[in-house]
Amino acid sequence: MVAKLVPLVLRNLGRNRRRTLLTILSIGVSIFVFAALASLPMLVDQILRDRANSLRVITHSKVSVMYQLPVAYLHQVKSVPHVEAVSAYTLFLATYRDPSVQLPAIAVTPENFRQIWPDWGLSEATEQKFLESRSACMVTRALMRQYGWKIGDNVILHGTMYPIDLQIKIVGEVGDRAPGVVIIFRSDYLDELIGRPGKVNIIWSKIDSSHSTQQVMADIDRMFANSADETQTETETAMVKNRVGEMSLMINGAKALAAIVIFAIALVAANTAAMAVRERRGEIAVMRAIGFSRDSIVVAILGEGVAIGILGGLVGCAMARAGFVALPYLAAELGPIALQLKMSARVLISSFAVATIIGAASSLVPAFTATRGSVARSLRPVG
Questions:
Q1: Backbone dihedral angles phi then psi of residue 146, each to the nearest 5 degrees
Q2: pTM given for the model
Q3: Are strands 83-96 and 165-174 parallel, antiparallel or unpaired?
Q4: Which of 198-209 are b and which e, b meaning 16 or more Cβ less than 10 Å from the residue's Cβ?
Q5: CA dist 2 → 77, 295, 303, 309, 367 (Å)
Q6: What residues does each domain of the chain span?
Q7: What are the angstrom distances between the C-alpha of 23 and each of 16, 157, 223?
Q8: What is the pLDDT of residues 153-169, one digit of tens each?
Q9: What pLDDT, in 10s, does the model give residues 305-347?
């Protein structure tokens, strides 16, 4: 029965092409907005999954990550039982070319890099080049693609935290599992430029086993208790969750806004479907009189709604994919967020399913309403 109704569905969709097109576009725009808003919580979930099995713990100032610790702490942390390797990094916020283009960079102690961050996809050859040159840097693939950089290029960053120009040379890439979209360079080079060595923001420790995590964190914080620079040590996952907690209002707002957008466009689609069916009540009555069953008419009207929903979903998903690709170029002021936001397969499937459901649900009630009652009563307006 369904196959026989396809020509009828296609003909009805083409009756008022402007209305059909506008309905498809309205659903497409709503799905575009829904996909964009739904991708923010998905990004946070992906970051948490990536850090779930980390054997790294993070030590920073008890006051805030932005407060610095003496670099001498690095050697003391290395002596804690179950700590296999340590490294430290200092935040360096900078601009590139345009003052509105913010690029985060981190200055790290070059030793033990691959041992502490084996999941960053750093090759042994790249690590060796990083160790050999004080002005060497490594860049995440997303930044390499956005700016068209290649290995061997020189890049100049203009510091915002420190009034210096940082000239660095790209010697390799790090993978997409690195924390954020960043440029990584050597801390001894930064100390040389600012003339103020001996301070770091974070100390990273690679531990031997997840069973040692709590003991290591307690030992480190106990070591520096009651000192001028007390510390707080936490797991990598806990640190991400804390930062996510600070963004919880924005994330919950994105979820609520996505739901509101979908609800609003569902009402619009339902009203449009009801209008289209109401205009054809006489025709539907004639169809029933010449032998079309109520179920077949409902299926035909439902098919129109589903077709519009599917087309709207395709349009919205295509717009979202194109938008995420273009976002780093159109909204450079968003910095690393623009580079990290991606439309996952889960969001893509969810968005398409939502569009299909909107199309089906918006036509279901008008279809049942239009076929309700006796055939004779429905034919009276026709006569």
A1: -65, -45
A2: 0.60
A3: unpaired
A4: ebbbbbbbbbee
A5: 71, 11, 9, 18, 16
A6: 2-48+247-379, 63-229
A7: 11, 48, 65
A8: 999 999 888 888 999 99
A9: 888 888 888 888 888 888 776 655 554 444 445 445 666 777 7
